[in-house]
Design brief:
Layout: E1 2-6, E2 9-12, E3 17-24, E4 32-38, E5 44-50, E6 56-58, E7 66-70, E8 76-81, E9 90-100, E10 103-109, E11 113-118
Parallel strand pairs: 2-11
Antiparallel strand pairs: 1-3, 3-8, 4-5, 4-9, 5-6, 7-8, 9-10, 9-11
């Protein structure tokens, strides 16, 4: 499975941004998909994921500002980000994987897209 992320950029605090990720390859539409981010000097953290059944999870600190959605073909996933803050600055990665017991285990990664929020 190959993942191609896009939509990052430089925005100002309070702005909105929509990230997109398209999966291709065999059985790409059978995987859960999600978003992680990695800020400079920090580890990679989960942002949100969506299962193949449409169940979603959003990390608590981002609930209400970030929303994950998926297309009907289940090969693209989107992250709508609003009220962006400088601390949201990070490289955002999309991933495809499995969900067990409410936890998302990524197996495939996209290349990352940079989001920079200026204050």
């Amino acid at each position: 499975v190959q993942l191609q992320a896009s939509g990052g950029g430089l925005v100002q605090s309070g702005d909105s941004l929509r990230l997109s990720c398209t999966a291709s390859g065999r059985a790409a539409n059978t995987f859960a998909m999600g978003w992680f981010r990695q800020a400079p000097g920090s580890g990679r953290e989960l942002v949100a994921f969506m299962s193949t059944t449409g169940a979603t999870f959003h990390t608590e600190s981002m609930q209400g500002r970030f929303t994950i959605t998926r297309d009907n073909a289940k090969t693209s996933v989107f992250l709508q980000m609003s009220s962006l803050k400088s601390e949201d600055t990070a490289v955002y990665y999309c991933a495809a994987g499995d969900v067990f017991g409410g936890s998302f285990t990524p197996h495939y990664w996209g290349q990352g897209t940079q989001v920079t929020v200026s204050s």
